[in-house]
């Protein structure tokens, strides 16, 4: 597989087709509401966006998200259209009544390449409490099994925060039982309704990543983190300790603006849904031009211009830290990621407030 040049195209482009959703999830970035916004991109505008995305090249991955993308009646039409023009279309529906067996089959028939569902608790009680809707766990698990029956690869998304972290081993078992191909573990960024939740500490996050590294080596499904790129640093260090095959590499995965782009329901283009600084709007400019040439995106791709301990870190090219979390907690998207426990050898500069307090024993 030819490596992706992330200066030219993203690995992943997410289009938030709507913010409408029946759920009231405690961590919701979008502050989703039951009703659709009147200024959402129309069906015609959505297809024009997909046509423009096609300029990135063959097989560009597009994720239709929300809110609940199935709150729009034309989401299946977007999957069908994107598939026809050569895009790899995936969908992240909410665990609501809209995620019916018929909806899963319709997405499969339209050519969806993967379905991603969210499981944030190992039991109906814990998951439904987090998602704010009784019955969400049952609907989500049923839809996951429907996807398997329809031959659609399944991804399971899980949020890590103080409320969910103890359930991770049991959720891992459920991911295995559902025959998922990928477990995507999202480390909370305090935006939207997520500001009221308690994140895990840097020390706890480090232990969770050690657990996830073990899972990635033991299970048949893949494991990735969202907004926690220092998982790659943890994996490299553990590989070095285990068998001498580790240490920094030249390039890593994706971070906000570097291999990743986000289009909002109204067409604003962001480096990530968790980094609300807009580079422009698809109604006025090409998504391709905004990704490649905007000052915001170009700056975020310059890992050597990171500041604080992220800028001093020998793993900055393989990791780069969460630019979204740095922005959410400091206002500077190029600053240190406050969730990362690692301090580069010889670094004597300032530490993120949360980490400095932890080291001081406060």
TrEMBL record:
GO MF annotations, alphabetized: 4 iron, 4 sulfur cluster binding; catalytic activity; metal ion binding
Segments of this protein annotated with the region Disordered: 234-253
Cofactor annotation: [4Fe-4S] cluster
Listed InterPro entries: Aldolase_TIM, Elp3/MiaA/NifB-like_rSAM, PqqE-like, Radical_SAM_PqqE_MftC-like, rSAM, rSAM_sf
Keyword 4Fe-4S belongs to the record: yes
Record key words, sorted: 4Fe-4S, Iron, Iron-sulfur, Metal-binding, S-adenosyl-L-methionine
Annotated ranges, domain Radical SAM core: 7-218
Superkingdom, natural source: Archaea
Name by which UniProt lists this protein: Radical SAM protein
């Amino acid at each position: 597989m030819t490596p992706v040049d992330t200066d030219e195209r993203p690995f992943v482009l997410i289009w938030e087709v709507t913010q409408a959703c029946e759920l009231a999830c405690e961590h919701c970035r979008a502050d989703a509401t039951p009703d659709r916004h009147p200024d959402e991109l129309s069906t015609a505008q959505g297809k024009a966006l997909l046509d423009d995305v096609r300029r990135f090249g063959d097989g560009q991955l597009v994720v239709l998200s929300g809110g609940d993308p199935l709150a729009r009646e034309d989401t299946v039409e977007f999957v069908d259209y994107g598939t026809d023009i050569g895009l790899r279309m995936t969908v992240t529906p909410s665990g609501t009544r809209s995620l019916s067996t018929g909806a899963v089959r319709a997405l499969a028939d339209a050519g969806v390449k993967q379905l991603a569902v969210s499981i944030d608790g190992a039991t109906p009680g814990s998951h439904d409490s987090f998602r704010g809707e009784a019955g969400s766990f049952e609907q989500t698990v049923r839809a996951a099994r429907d996807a398997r029956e329809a031959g659609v690869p399944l991804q399971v998304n899980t949020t890590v925060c103080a409320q969910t972290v103890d359930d991770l081993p049991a959720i891992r078992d459920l991911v295995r039982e559902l025959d998922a191909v990928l477990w995507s573990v999202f480390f909370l960024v305090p935006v939207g309704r997520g500001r009221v939740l308690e994140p895990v500490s840097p020390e706890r996050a480090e232990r969770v990543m050690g657990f996830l590294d073990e899972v990635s080596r033991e299970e048949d499904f893949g494991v990735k983190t969202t907004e926690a790129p220092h998982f790659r640093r943890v994996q490299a260090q553990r590989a070095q300790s285990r068998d001498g095959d580790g240490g920094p590499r030249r390039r890593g995965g994706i971070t906000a603006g570097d291999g990743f782009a986000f289009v909002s329901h109204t067409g604003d283009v962001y480096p990530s849904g968790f980094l609300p600084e807009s580079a422009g709007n698809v109604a006025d400019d090409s998504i391709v031009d905004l990704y490649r040439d905007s000052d915001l995106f170009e700056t975020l791709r310059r890992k050597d211009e990171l500041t604080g301990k992220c800028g001093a870190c020998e793993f900055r090219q393989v990791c780069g830290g969460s630019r979204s979390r740095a922005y959410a907690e400091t206002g500077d998207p190029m600053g240190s990621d406050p969730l990362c426990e690692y301090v580069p050898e010889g670094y004597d500069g300032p530490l993120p407030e949360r980490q400095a307090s932890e080291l001081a024993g406060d």
